[in-house]
Amino acid sequence: MDRNILEFATLLRKAGVKVSHSEVADSLQALSLAGLEKGVFYDSLAVTMVKDWSDFNIFDKIFNYYFDPEFFGHREEALKRWPKLMLPLQGESGCSGSDPVSGKGRSQDSEHDAGTDRGRSTGFGQGQGLATAAIDDFMQVVKIGCHEDMADIVKKGVKSLGAIREEDLRDMKAAVRQVKVFLEWNMGVYRLEREACEVDESVSLKWQERLTEMEEMLYRELEKAIINQLGQEALDTILFRENLNEIDFYSISAPQTAEIKKKISKLAHKLATRLSFRRRRAKHGKIDLPKTIRKSMATGGVPIKPAFRDRYPTRPEIVILCDISGSVRIFSEFMLQLVYSIQNRFVHVRSFVFVDTPDEVTQYMHNREIEDGIRDIYNKARFSKTAFSDYGQMFIEFCENYLAVLNKKTTLIVIGDARNNYHRAHTDYYQKMCEEVKKVIWLNPEPSENWDNEDSIMSVYGPFCHQVFECRNLQQLDRVARKII
Amino acid sequence: MFGSIPEVKARLTKQNYLINNRVATAVYLAVNLQKPLLIEGPAGVGKTQLAKAVAKAMDTELIRLQCYEGLDESKALFEWNYQKQLLRIQANHLTEKTWEETKANIFSEDFYLARPLLKALRAERPVVLLVDELDKSDEEFESFLLEALSDYQVSIPELGTVKATSIPVVILTSNNYRDFSDALKRRCIHLYIDYPSFDRELAIVRLKVPGIKEALSERMVAFVQSLRKMGLKKAPSISETLDWARTLVLLGADSLDEELVTNTVNILLKYQQDIKKVEERIGGLLPE
């Protein structure tokens, strides 16, 4: 048992959860105290190992993979010669129908929601399953909301992929898309949305919740299949992807986006409080000469105690210019969220979005929920004429329409990958903008080794900026945010 | 002390505090491993109440240390009773004692005021020490607390190291206002309390507001549960549900209708924009 716990802790660490030795020791102590009963086992590990509630989801996931009976039983041998052993197992369960697998799955799932009654599910999955169109199945399941049915549908979907290949691991989004097509997922969502107008709000809210839950299930099921098929390395890759701090913004899945948003609001909070703390404390540094002399009068002209200058916190004006073309959209949204959650740190923030033409979106974000603001940007702002990024054209138009926004107090933050689709760069206009402001920072969400490849012209714009950062994961965003804010 | 996890559950239920298995496990482990219990979760889900219930269930005193920005050792640990020291010095003047004698006298145990932390360590039998909203305190205070929490002892320059006569059950609560250091988290059992499920919330409402009609309680809990799914700025928590239930009982309501909800929804929601959002859709949110 000890070894398993240690191994489990190693897996958690790989996924970016901080688990120290003393925490492992605690958990072992806790287990010897509380016993190994299933629910207690899970809870004991949870309360001793996970110290940050945003890591809890990862814990739950790894727990379910690692302590999965299918997985756990074969562990000893599997560790020695993994792929050969796991392959026939997978094939077998594929042929002999869903019974053994879903049976196990069910007992697993129902462990955590003792509330749902089991009787309801049995007729549905097998009886109607294949006869009706997939879309009806899908909608039924969402409407009824029974966990076992949801798991069945998801399993059927993953099975439709057939044998798992390396590509599925490399590009899980594509695999998920494939499964969704098979289940007619998007069609179902669309129809549900239409029906949602007619039913009660409370019902449609429930549907929405189930959809997110099912999406999460789908990812998990797929990952499980991949791990079973491809073995230890696949597990490592998947865990590494779970590491929200280091995962590339390019490759995050929908559930992870939500997690990252939570982390960003935390980061924003940290930034906001950190500064207020420092400002209160530090009254050292530059000596205020007039004040010191005035003070020295009391001691007959001998300056015994120097007086220090007050620190006035600088509150920069920020102009943020976001590329929201497909490739960098997610990162731009994160950045907008970050900047607007610490709005009070700045004199004002003005934000612009562009694909090939800039449009001001400050008014959508002002004093509103960030989510609503971002939705409005896509619905109302006019940022695209051709749907292909064109930085040169954008800079020209910015100079024509908005140059007055910039002044010597402004920090200009440009967010984009500088992929110009081989258009002209128009650096003269960009230079003009840079000369207007105090500071220019460019954040590029692409890995720096890809800069200047293909149509990226980062090195053309780079020299005009004061700072250029590669900012492709949460860790880097954290570091950059501390520097510029 | 608690003998087993079911016992924790039973004894806390007796105190009118309903918990699920994870909370019971965490409390059990924290008490038996003698480690601090760090509770996080949204405001109003009963973090402070849990500490109170644990104290009552263990039939012991609850010592509460409320944290705020600027809280320092003198308010948390101990302080010299300055006035009393002055009085003694003046009194000694009259008796013409030497300064050496006076000095030895005024820094003794008669002259300090024990603050919550020291009180908890000095208690005859184990008490429950509740450090409430630790996230509101400064980082220095947090690191000061580390010594107390890891070895259950504190260092006071004039008195030396004070060891705990009995090891208290320490409960820390946080609203996630800021992150704690890893060093602190490492020493704690961690518990995240989320909004309760439908069944548990219903049970809580019936337990705490006995006067409420069965049908009404079901409908109002269902309503609150769907509010939480709406993505509001501040979702209502249990304490708000209870307030609302009491209000409804006070108003003598038998069932929920749109008008009643519109008039009382400000008990559940604390932000104008949330209220507006809900009022727009109130008809759909009320189950038939």
How would you describe this structure to a colleague?
Helix content of chain A is 60%, strand content 7%. Chain A has 25 helices and six strands. Chain B folds into three domains: 145 residues, P-loop containing nucleotide triphosphate hydrolases (Rossmann fold, 3-Layer(aba) Sandwich); 31 residues, no CATH class; 82 residues. Chain B is built from 15 helices and nine strands. In chain B, helix 1 packs across helix 2. The longest helix of chain B has 15 residues. At the A-B interface, helix 2, helix 3, helix 15 and helix 17 of A face helix 2, helix 9, strand 9, helix 11 and helix 15 of B.
Topology, please?
The complex is a heterodimer of chains A (485) and B (288).
Chain A: H1 2-14, H2 21-34, H3 38-49, H4 56-66, H5 69-72, H6 75-80, H7 82-95, H8 99-112, H9 119-127, H10 134-144, H11 147-159, H12 166-170, H13 172-183, H14 185-196, H15 201-230, H16 232-242, H17 254-281, H18 289-296, E1 317-323, H19 329-341, E2 349-354, E3 358-360, H20 362-365, H21 370-380, H22 391-402, E4 410-415, H23 427-436, E5 439-444, H24 458-461, E6 467-470, H25 474-484
Parallel strand pairs in A: 1-2, 1-4, 4-5, 5-6
Antiparallel strand pairs in A: 2-3
Helix pairs in contact in A: 2-3, 7-15, 8-11, 10-14, 11-13, 11-15, 14-15, 15-16, 17-19, 17-25, 22-23
Chain B: H1 5-14, H2 21-33, E1 37-40, H3 47-57, E2 62-66, H4 73-76, E3 78-80, H5 82-95, H6 99-106, E4 112-114, H7 116-122, E5 128-132, H8 139-151, E6 153-156, E7 160-163, E8 169-174, H9 182-187, E9 189-192, H10 198-208, H11 214-228, H12 238-250, H13 258-264, H14 272-280, H15 282-285
Parallel strand pairs in B: 1-8, 1-9, 2-5, 5-8
Antiparallel strand pairs in B: 3-4, 6-7
Helix pairs in contact in B: 1-2, 1-3, 10-11, 10-12
